[in-house]
């Protein structure tokens, strides 16, 4: 059908959800393509949803999400006026871009990075300025600084970066902030912050407290295992948050999501044990793969990156045949989520097979 529409949308790829686990006869399969937490929500969180939300799904949720906002304010030491909720951190980032950028404006961010960035920016009518990562898969801060001009309305720091899992240092982000005009916002996207063990990493909340143009985005999807309920939040200057509310999707965050978020904050100690377990698994996997001979950027999220170049698609086939769905970036590499112990063992086995075949030059499709 031919219909009138914005032609620039035709230039965008559709956002691709991670593939489900492949069906392999006689083998248990695993989905490790979407950086999901392999643990189910805690019993206390499920009970809270049942007790406080299910009976009220005929009613609109609290659009401001005061129970969550006030709890987050108490947790972080900021005012409720500094907090905005959204359907995951993706939606609060969309709110922010829609607030600050439109036709003729630019948004600067690292690339490759979160796949939604170009979609969000283009949909707002603005232009993406994609700054290539360093060969090690990290932010090129000098190049990002050089990319800022009088058309720049937002600079995004993805920490840890998705899909390379690399951390951004405090010193680098401070250097970036010193170079960016104070009327240009800098977003610290911290979807995986709970998994970041880099002692030198930037801490979004520290920077928010020191700089007038910093916005921090976090989510309940990853460490809190609430990806299916869609709730995230931004912390920023009061006038920025007020502007974000104006462009937000009305009633976007469900009552179930709000109840689950508060219950998850109540159960933070239990959830931290799960985060620690995933970090321990990450360490085990990476140390084993490096022992096999793989060169892998130090991961600081619940996933790691195999930079494979032109071999990417062929190698991806080996994971699929083994019953593993991974996130494939053709011509670049593969992102692998840290999952259940059994899934991680299977990743290790496939990587050993692929490494041996690659170096014996018998890798075949």
Automatic annotation (TrEMBL):
Which reactions fall under this protein's catalytic activity? L-histidinol phosphate + 2-oxoglutarate = 3-(imidazol-4-yl)-2-oxopropyl phosphate + L-glutamate
Which pathway does the record list? Amino-acid biosynthesis; L-histidine biosynthesis; L-histidine from 5-phospho-alpha-D-ribose 1-diphosphate: step 7/9
In terms of domain of life, where is this protein from? Bacteria
Q: Which InterPro entries match?
A: Aminotrans_II_pyridoxalP_BS, Aminotransferase_I/II_large, ArAT, HisP_aminotrans, HistidinolP_aminotransfase, PyrdxlP-dep_Trfase, PyrdxlP-dep_Trfase_major, PyrdxlP-dep_Trfase_small
- Does the keyword section mention Transferase? yes
Residues bearing the modification N6-(pyridoxal phosphate)lysine:
222
Report the sequence similarity comment from the record.
Belongs to the class-II pyridoxal-phosphate-dependent aminotransferase family. Histidinol-phosphate aminotransferase subfamily.
Name by which UniProt lists this protein? Histidinol-phosphate aminotransferase
Q: Which organism is it from?
A: Bifidobacterium crudilactis
Q: Which gene encodes it?
A: hisC
